[in-house]
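Lab notes, practical 5.
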Amino acid sequence: MVQRTFMNIENVTEGMRLDQAIVNRAGKVLMERGILLKKEDLDSLREMGIVGVYISEGEDYFAEVEDEKLSKETVAQIEKHIVKDQAKVNLSESVKQRVSQGIQYLYSNTESADFADASTSITDELMRAINENDAIAIDIGALKISDEYTFKHSVDVATMSMIIGKKYGLDSKQIYEIGIAGLLHDIGKSKIPNEILNKPARLTDDEFAIMKQHSVYGYHILQRKEQLSKDIIYGVLQHHEKLNGRGYPMGVDRNKISLFARILSIADIYDALVTERPYKKGFSPRTAVEMLMSMTEELDIEAMRSFMSSIILYPVGSNVELSNGEKAKVVENRPECVLRPTVVGLKSGKLYNLADDLSCASILIL
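Output from the prediction step:
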């Protein structure tokens, strides 16, 4: 049986088998799925700013690849219909390292005189990554910053919130500030006892009551930072509030929840769902998106639409398995229909327009 794993590029070594096609923005395949990676391949991936790839292991791999040899007709069909993905945020390894170190500094030095300056410095890095190629999308399967949960989570939430905000229509200043709010949304956890914060099991009710105070602690930390706007501070305070009034810490309803908090909430919930913790396995990106879609009473619908239209679940060039048993290659993503891209069957060469073709209505990506 083949095991497919997403790995940070820094952990990929020579001889590992690439389990995805590497495709440039024009749709040209730069590396074929199934190749054994060489040193020069790894160097190229790093130069392209690719943060991670899918790797496969297993003795049945060659049988699977054999089944997927493409006919000329299928290749022609793929080339005819392939449409490059929306421009995605791309964080180089050096940027990721600086951002991760900066976040760790903030959480360890909440009373530092240069706390606000350090926050803006990190946000500058993220803003540059978004502006470099006018990024309006995120490959959420590859959004990883570090292996340490708190720091990874903070930067993931900041990056997603900035892209959601951009799609929502926020101006540059607001996008920048929601990035700061995303970085700092859990800063109050620096005041939570370590035995609760790092407990390798589910929290008791009493422990969870303490944990829920982290947004209040964050509010008090940031309230003393004159350089930070009220939008940032209230975004941090309210990022666990729900539109139906069932959130915390204050249980306010939709009319009293700031826009920043509404956007942060979606990014925060999504990233928490997909992240594996000692006491739970992470949900798949698809399942997490479906769970978010079911939370219409709790989450802002416009912010949700902005999230849905800015994420890429199945990057163009990746292979997927359909519920009809056929394997297929993704050739186009539809921002308004993120769960149902257009794909081409690898054996049949058939085009499956999962978003619009009624004859494909019963076909799902597994």
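Observations recorded by the TA: The longest strand covers residues 3-8. The radius of gyration is 21 Å.
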